[in-house]
Amino acid sequence: MVDGLKSRLARAAAGVAALALAFGLGGCSLATPSLDEAVDETPAQAIADSELVQAGTLTVALDTSDAPQVITGTDGELVGYDIDVATALAENMGLKVSFVNATSPSSALEGGEADIYLGATASDESGDISTEGEVLQNATAIFGINTGSTSAASTTVSASDLTSARVGVQDGSASQEALARVNVVASSTYSNVNECFEALAAGEVDYVACDATAGGYLARSYEGVFFAGTISSSTSYGIAYLSSSSDLADEVNNALDALATDGTLDAIHQVWYGPVPLSLSSEVISGVTLATSESASDDESASSDGEPTITEDINSLD
Asked: What's the predicted TM-score (pTM) here?
C-alpha cells in the first residue's frame, strides 16, 4: 500500500470521527487499522496503455449516489469505501485513478467511458459484460447497543431475542420486509436509517434492522453499537469488464487478490463499516432460516434501503 492510500485511509478515519462530533455523540472509539508495515513504493504499470481508456490511468465507473459506498462532498470530491478500493487497485497496478458516474456497467463500458465498473452484481452480466471478483457484501443486518447500564450485555443475538425485543426499522424499506420474512414485526418505524440509530442510542429500541453497510457506517458515530448478524441472504458486489478486456480483467483481479491477501481490503472495510465483517455469508443470526426460494432480486433489495441521510458537512470526510 503506498502513501496515497495511507493518506486516504487516515483522512477517512478522521472524517468518521468528525462525523461523530457532528452528530453530537462524543465518545466514539475508532479502531483504525495499523498501516505501519505498509510498503511505500510505486509499482510498475501492470497493463499497457492500449488497454486503457486513458493512458496511465484506471478509469472506474460507479454509482456516485450509492451512499455510503460513495459520498459526494459539497466541493464535488468523491469519498467512500468504493473510492478507496478503486484507488488501492489503481495504485497496486501502478496507475492513477479517475471516476465516472454510472448506474450500471453497460453504458459506461460499452460506450468506452470507463475501464471497469465497481459494484456490479451477477445480474449485470451479459454477452458483452463479465463480472469477476468480490469487493463487498451487503445484507439486511441487525445492530444493537451496549449502554452504560448493560455494559456486560452479550452481543450474541438469536431469532427469539428479536421476536421479544423492540426493533426499529425504516418504514417501507427492504429491511422491514426482511424482518417480516423471519416473523419479526418492527415495534417502531422511522423515516430514515439515521433516525433508527438515534432511537437506538436513546434507548427507544433494542435493535435496528438496516443494510449492513449503512448500519456499519453509522455505528462508528455511536458508543457501544455492535453488529449482531444478518437476517437475509447476502449480495455480492464485484467488478464488471467488457468481455473482450481479458488482459485488463486479469491484472485487476491480480491487484484485488493482492489487496485481500495483504489485509488492505479489510483495512479499508474497517475504516468505513466499523464492526461489520468483510464477509457476511456466515453471519446469519442463530435461529434465522433463509428461504431457499429467495430470488436474486430479493437478495439485491436487501441493499436498497440503507442509504443514510447525511445532513452534516461531509467535506470533513475528504
From this structure: 0.82
